[in-house]
Write a structure and sequence with these properties.
The protein has 506 residues and is an alpha+beta fold. It has helices at residues 5-20, 25-32, 36-43, 51-61, 65-69, 79-85, 87-91, 101-110, 112-128, 133-147, 153-166, 176-186, 225-241, 258-275, 278-289, 296-306, 310-325, 369-380, 428-433, 469-490, and strands at 190-193, 207-210, 216-219, 249-250, 329-337, 340-348, 386-394, 400-409, 417-425, 444-447. The chain is globular and about 80 Å long.
């Protein structure tokens, strides 16, 4: 059952009109010649009556037909109009989280004024922080991934079966020409290049999909081999899964629905699974975790063995490590331009303390591995990829993570530096599974979320990028709270008010 705003609004208007007339459900049903159970279903938004029944209900209430079918709600229900017309409410994937849409409809119709006021408050917050529908859809997808440990058995099996059927499982790395042949021969694609020279505005896209009887996939000529292969494998993912609603460009120019976001994710998941099949990757991870000491060349070798980008490699690890090794992980992607760092992508399945300054213009702690690698890459003046490892301990929570990361200079756009990090929560399970985790040669870092919230004094941190304004504010608030509690506990001193004190009027 989906949330149909027309059905819900009609049900709310009918209920509002009935209550304003002081009629019970049974009385309205009798006047209209309908059963009470049918009227109940209408008021709950589960059914929408035909025109003749609407006319009978309108006459029973003394309403005009057009007045009853109007989508306008009267106070105090008018707040619900914008909420019910919102794409977020209509398309939010309630079923993915085990929520019956009927329960939401029941809540709306049971307490419409209160829910309307809540919806208005949430809408005001969203507008105040420039939160768009796209943000809700992507947050819903991220929560869904984290709920399932970022592992999806059905998608793994689809990728495995297809690779076997077309012979993509015969050798690793998967050849690029084999992927091209699959798209052209099996799915009828035309492959070409984005005309970036003649239309420079299109140079920002990695790929453009042109639908039609013979679909076309245009690739940016500046893509590297591993990047091209991922685009081709992801495109095969759309066809393997029979996905319709999708982004036409990469990166997407717009997000129209949650289905689009979900389908894009599924296609990318299958594409990654084709390039890095589950069983070989699990075997390589097992061998990596058995190393007694950290050996960075082993990770570089895996990049070459699968011929993938650092992001594809570590993101694929984030899908398989929780499932096969029982470890809690997180994945981060940062970008930097002109000294400004942005958290572009994240999955948090390890209870990582993500910065509270997300999108609030605060400065991420420069001791984070993902930030440190970008800074080191800039200092070296190299394109990368630059590999790093760190045991990170958060100052306030004392939680520890073993972090592996890569930084590199992007080719699209060429002025951007990015880094990706796979973090593994350090606990008894990790210590038992990952032998090199205790290697004393691995550098350690004491870090915080953002500079603005860090209590470390200047002499204890040479990497601070901003003064601890938010931490000082919090300390002042705590001090006032303690003083107030002491005053309430000990009692206020009693004394005469000085006659020289200014009056309230003065």
């Amino acid at each position: 059952m989906s949330l149909n705003p027309i059905h819900i609004i009609f049900g709310l208007k009918l209920r509002q009109a009935r209550l304003s007339q002081g009629l019970s459900l049974s009385e309205l049903a009798a006047r209209a010649g309908l059963s009470p159970s049918y009227v109940t279903e209408i008021e709950k938004g589960r059914k929408y009556p035909k025109a003749d029944k609407i006319l009978r209900l309108a006459r029973a209430l003394g309403y005009d037909y057009d007045q009853l079918v109007s989508l306008r709600l009267e106070p105090p229900l008018h707040f619900l109009e914008s909420a019910l017309s919102s794409q977020v409410l209509q398309q939010f994937p309630l079923e993915l989280f085990g929520v019956d849409p009927a329960a939401v409809v029941g809540l709306l119709t049971r307490s419409p004024a209160e829910i309307g006021a809540l919806a208005q408050a949430l809408a005001d917050v969203a507008r105040g922080y420039n939160i768009r529908e796209e943000h809700f859809f992507r947050a819903a997808l991220r929560s869904y991934q984290e709920l399932h440990g970022n592992y999806f058995e059905a998608l793994e099996r689809e990728a495995e079966a297809f690779a076997r059927a077309v012979g993509l499982d015969r050798s690793l790395p998967v050849p690029e020409d084999a992927l091209q042949e699959v798209l052209q021969q099996r799915f009828g694609y035309e492959l070409g290049l984005i005309p970036a020279d003649s239309r420079p505005a299109l140079a920002a896209y990695r790929a453009i999909f042109v639908p039609g009887r013979r679909p076309r996939l245009l690739l940016n000529p500046a893509l590297t081999g591993p990047q091209r292969k991922f685009v081709l494998a992801r495109e095969a993912g759309y066809r393997i899964l029979g996905l319709g609603e999708r982004a036409l460009t990469n990166p997407p120019d717009r997000v129209d629905s949650f289905s689009q976001v979900l389908n894009d994710f599924k296609a990318a998941y299958v594409g990654g699974a084709i390039l890095m099949p589950e069983q070989p990757v699990v075997a390589d991870l097992g061998a990596l975790f058995e190393l007694a000491t950290w050996q960075p060349e082993r990770l570089y070798r895996l990049l070459d063995a699968y011929d993938v980008t650092p992001e594809t490699l570590l993101y694929r690890f984030s899908e398989l490590v929780p499932r096969h090794f029982g470890l809690k992980v997180h994945f981060l992607r940062f970008s930097e331009i002109n000294g400004t760092y942005r958290l572009y992508k994240h999955l948090n399945m390890s209870q990582l303390s993500l910065p509270k300054g997300f999108d609030l213009k605060e400065h991420y702690c420069r001791r984070w591995l993902t930030v440190r690698l970008i800074r080191e890459l800039a200092r070296l003046g190299q394109p990368g990829p630059l590999l790093g490892i760190q045991r990170s301990r958060f100052l306030q929570s004392q939680r520890e993570f073993l972090c592996l990361g890569f930084a590199r200079q992007e080719n699209l756009p060429p002025f951007l530096r990015t880094s990706v990090t796979l973090g593994l929560r350090i606990d008894d399970e990790l210590r038992a599974r990952v032998r090199f985790a205790s290697d004393p040669a691995i550098p350690e870092g004491l870090l915080n979320e953002t500079c603005e919230r860090c209590p470390l004094p200047p002499e204890a941190c040479q990497d601070r990028a901003a003064p601890p304004e938010r931490w000082e504010q919090e300390q002042a608030i705590d001090e006032r709270r303690r003083a107030l509690e002491e005053l309430m506990r000990d009692g206020a001193p009693v004394g005469a008010v000085s006659s020289s004190a200014p009056s309230a009027a003065g």
